[in-house]
Amino acid sequence: MQEVIRDIPVRTEGELRLHAMVRAVLSPGIWFVLAAQLLLMFMLQWRVPEDAAPLLSMLAIFLTAMALMLFFYLQAGAFQALSQGREALPVGEVIRAGKAVFAAFVWLLLKAGLLFAVVMNVLVLVALLLTGSNLEALTQTLTTYFGPMTGMLAFVFVYWLPLVFVQREFRLLSGLKAALRIAWTRLSHSVFLALMVLVPALAAGFLPADGPILFNALASLISGILGWIAYIYCVDALRQRQPAATDKISV
Predict the structure, then answer these.
(1) In terms of C-beta density within 10 A (0-12 exposed, 13-18 middle, 19 or more buried), how is residue 199 classed?
(2) How far is CA 2 from CA 89, 93, 113, 183, 241, in A?
(3) Most buried of 60, 78, 142, 160 (most Cβ within 10 A)?
(4) Residue 7 falls inside a structural domain
(5) What confidence tens digit (pLDDT) does each residue in 39-69 have?
(6) Does any domain span residue 6?
(7) How many structural domains are present in the chain?
(8) Does the keyword rRNA-binding apply (predicted)?
(9) Alpha-carbon gap, residue 7 to 132, rounded angstroms
(10) Is residue 251, in this structure, part of any structural domain at all?
């Protein structure tokens, strides 16, 4: 892997946090991705009628898949563009940057999703064997706490995606291991990231599942912008670490 030496000024924790907040709020590209996220959320609320023709059902599935792929493309472009510069992110840069990393990003998400599914199935099986409870009751309990659980995972692996795009290294297990190592070395600076990532996920667990869609959209928008602030903060922290700005992740 070719090492890239960057002339990156060393900033204090306060400067890193302030820069992340200002850059996220002033970036049209981030708000564009958040708008796409809300649009996708509204689309997923729609259900095909049970008596609909098979062709309509297939069309709905195709359009949903295409919308999801488009959202992943925009996400990949924003992740990539934010890992390169320091200025506010324009919409055009999001669209241009996604082309180089989209395929690798989707493949990484597929591997991460498969790993998550395997781990969850193993945990469910172990819980069934140890507690003797039935599968339906355990599934209902997991559904109740699924949001906080994923929020905790996002907090623990908060440096994973920033590391992936700063180093352009899309291997899954080695990237997760490196992200954990970095999070451990920066444990004293984790309060800010907990406020940006963990607290919104825990708060979302108290929101009613059948609440008004506009209220859920507002909550999604707030948690989304906080997540992007956390991403920018992690990117800046990684880029000014020495020698981590040129680290190589090994399997």
Answers:
(1) middle
(2) 26, 24, 29, 25, 18
(3) 78
(4) no
(5) 998 887 777 666 667 777 788 788 888 999 9
(6) no
(7) 1
(8) no
(9) 58
(10) no
